[in-house]
Amino acid sequence: MGFFDFLKKAPEAAPAFPMMVAADAKGTVVPMEQIPDEVFAQGILGKCCGIDPSEGKVYSPVDGTITQAPDSGHALGIQGTGNVEVLIHVGVDTVEMKGDGFSPKVKEGDKVKKGQLLLEMDLAKIAAANHPAVVITVVTNTDDFKDVELVASGTVEPGADLLKVSK
């Protein structure tokens, strides 16, 4: 496949690019390299960033469909518009909590809108388990796009522009 072949295959009514992936939590932006987990910090799963949450709520960063909702409640996969695949991972090593402190509000197959509440988490329980609570937002199919870049810094509110995805 030629480098520019992807330009020819634009689907009808394609969403406008660059597309924004919104902040999915209220808190302080953590650049990818500073996420306290090597897999995410090195971008192995895709370009990403974190938000150190100041409240225990996670909202949808895109319009789309929930593709992954493990019982542990600490992560969600979303197939967003424009084929942007987003993984939200709440905390580092929080899978070890086996769902304690997490209450998902959506299930696999649900359609979601940007800004919709996806899950609640107990920040005190996460802290008590000695896990960073950073909410990590990953564009897992980064390679399908020209660029995924962090456009936010400092403190953000849910819905603020966070990651810019360019085709």
Automatic annotation (TrEMBL):
Q: Is Transferase set as a keyword in this record?
A: yes
Q: Main site of residence? A: cytoplasm
GO CC aspect terms: cytoplasm
Q: Record keywords: Kinase included?
A: yes
A GO molecular function held by the record: kinase activity
Location in the cell: Cytoplasm
In its UniProt record, which GO terms are filed under biological process?
phosphoenolpyruvate-dependent sugar phosphotransferase system
From the UniProt annotation, give the residues forming the signal peptide.
Answer: none
Per the record, the domain of life is Bacteria
Q: Could you tell me which residue ranges the PTS EIIA type-1 domain spans?
A: 37-141
Annotated InterPro entries: Dup_hybrid_motif, PTS_EIIA_1_perm, PTS_EIIA_component
Q: Which Pfam families does the protein's record reference? A: PTS_EIIA_1
Cite the entry's keywords alphabetically. Kinase, Phosphotransferase system, Sugar transport, Transferase, Transport
Q: Which protein, by its recorded name, is this?
A: PTS glucose transporter subunit IIA
